[in-house]
Structures are given as C-alpha cells and as structure tokens.
Amino acid sequence: MRFAARLAAVSLLAAVTTVGMGSAAHADRYRDDQWYLPFLRVAEAHAISQGEGVTVAVIDSGVEGKHPDLTGNVLKGFDTIVGGDGDGWGDDEGHGSSMAGLIAGHGHGAGNKDGVLGMAPKAKVLPIRISTAKGHGGGDAIAIGIDEAVKRGVKIISISESAPSADSSVLIKAVERAHAAGVLVLAAAGNQPKDFYVAAPGRYPGAVAVGAVDQQGTVAPVSVRGDEVQLVAPGVDITSTSRINTATNTQYRRSSGTSPATAITAGLAALVWSKYPQLTADEVLERMTRTAVDKGPAGRDRDYGFGLIDPVAALTAPAAAPSAPVIAPSIEVSLPEIPDLPDTRGAGSGLLLGVGLLVVLLIGGVLVVVAVVVFLVLRKRR
Length: 382
What we know:
The protein contains ten helices and 16 strands. It is of the alpha/beta class. It has a single domain (11-316), classed as Rossmann fold (3-Layer(aba) Sandwich), CATH 3.40.50. Helix 4 (95-104) runs parallel beside helix 7. The longest helix has 37 residues, at 345-381. The relative contact order is 0.15. Belongs to the peptidase S8 family. Residues 1-27 form the signal peptide. The active site is at residues 60, 95, 259.
C-alpha cells in the first residue's frame, strides 16, 4: 500500500548547513570532521562491538545504497510513497543517506580510514522511504514503515522525521505494535523553533525520544525539551554521507539537529545488541539509560532525559541487578511429642451400658416405694 505525496506533511529533523562537501578523493577530511567519534570514544567501543548481526531500519528519505562508505551495508528496503524506486534505495534529498552513514558507515580506502565511520560499521541498514524531494507521506506513511520494519525482523527502528503536530491513532498503534514485538523505536525529539514540544512519534508510549548536544556536551539550542526525552547524543555540525550528486561530484554533508543525534543513538543500540544478543529491547534501553552521563539537574530532566549516551559504559557495565524476590524467613517450630493413646472405645461402651442399667433399676425402685406409700396413705383414710 502506498500513499500519495503530501507536501510538508513530514519534517526532516536536521538543519543542513553544508551540502555536498566534496568528492571521495578527499574523503579523509570528513573523517577528521567527525568530532563526535573521539568525543564518544567510539574507537574504544569498536574494540568491543561493531554491530555485527543487527539490522536497523531507517525510516526517512531513502538511502544511497551505492555510496562507497555504505557499500554492502544497505539491504533492499521498501517505499511507502509514490516516486521512489520501490526498495528504499535512491535518495533525492540526502537526509536518509546521512542517517544511514551515522549508523552503519564503514568508510573506504586503505583500511577504511577515509570517509564517514558510523557507530556500528558492521550493522545493516534497512531503508524505508517515506519521502522524496516532492513530498512526504505523513504519519500514515511512517506507520506503514514501522509495520514493514517489524515484519522484516529488524531489532531497531530509527526515525529522524516527524509526523504532523496532530496525533495520529494509526501511528500511535504502529509504535505500540513495534514495542510489543520487541523492537526498539528511536525517534527525534524535534527541532526548535519549528517544534514547540516533543515531536511524534517520539512522544508516543513505546518510542524513545532523543535530543541533541553540542561539542561541549551541552544541550543544543535547536533541541526540543520535554518530559518524553530519554537520551541525548551529539547533534551539532555532524558530518556524514549524503546522496551522490554526479553533477557536482558531491556525496557528503554536515547538519545539526535531533536527526543525527537519533541516528547516532540507534548505532549505539546496535553495538549493545550485537554484544548482548540475549537482551530484550527494554533491556537494551535500560543499559543505555543506566550508563548515560547525567547532565543538568540530578536524575532525569526535560533537557537531557537520563543523560548523554556513553558507548563504552553501555558495553562494559555489569548487568543490572535483578529485583530480589521477597522471601519470608524460615522458622523452625518444635512441637512436643504426643504419645499414642490406647483405643478405649470398647471399654467406654461397656461402662456406658452398666451405668444405664443401674439408672433403670434405681428409677424402678423409687417408683415401687412411691406406690407403696400412696397405697398406705389411702388405706389409712378409709
């Protein structure tokens, strides 16, 4: 099922500051531009996990599957909107390709040291296209994309686009179904000033809203605040892959917003799930929130949620202690030994019979005496 394009129905949650930053021949500069790699100690995290065996669905504008930094990591996906290629490949905006690079980019060249390196370079991306440069499918298209991702068995869904401000029951139910199926749904919190509160589907139960921080780890001015925010990640001046523009020989871009922060967080989820495949979606999220660096007021808050993601801590922290069941202490009670009593039922029966006969004889004797006394009295009166 496909939806006709509806202009401005969905917003891309990244402000693009530079598009098409150069060709692959000079790609090493783009790796150097990825300030968030050392900031998050990604090299140390990659020594533990690289996301192998995990598939992340990217619900966005499609993915440039032929990009040299993504070759082999992009599966054949799905289009929910007319105008795509039918399999999620192809991206005339570049936004979806940028998110895919942050999740599963592996670079290129000698030792893959050039180009963009993603958070989980051995993970796979399932592209689900809900928009083109001509229009967007809206909340219903996102819902269809979520259901398709669940159907195809992904573990993680990354959504860096928002639905219209009005709540959609179709989208709400799709998020609920995904969560019930054990899928981790990560969604951008939204960008100011366009968004005033946490965007859909990030604000829906079952989804994880992600905010953005800058190079100092401070919540970015563009990042929407709200009670639904659970995690934050780098989201300012983020360099990543883009669509391949043969006319200008460009294939990289830099952007800011909660979109890249969401993709980076989805990449971390892939690292954790690859390292601990036995975990459930809720347990993966628990590990990420428990190990996040607390920012702002102590505890969870509207700006940072539980805090800034910490990949190394999320991969190395001990498992959460299970809640110990309350068991009542055992009490030993010593009871006195009770001796066996003899069976006296026969003796009791004989005794009862003897007493009965005695009573009958006594009553009979009394009656005889009374009769004699009465007879004598009557005789005397005569």
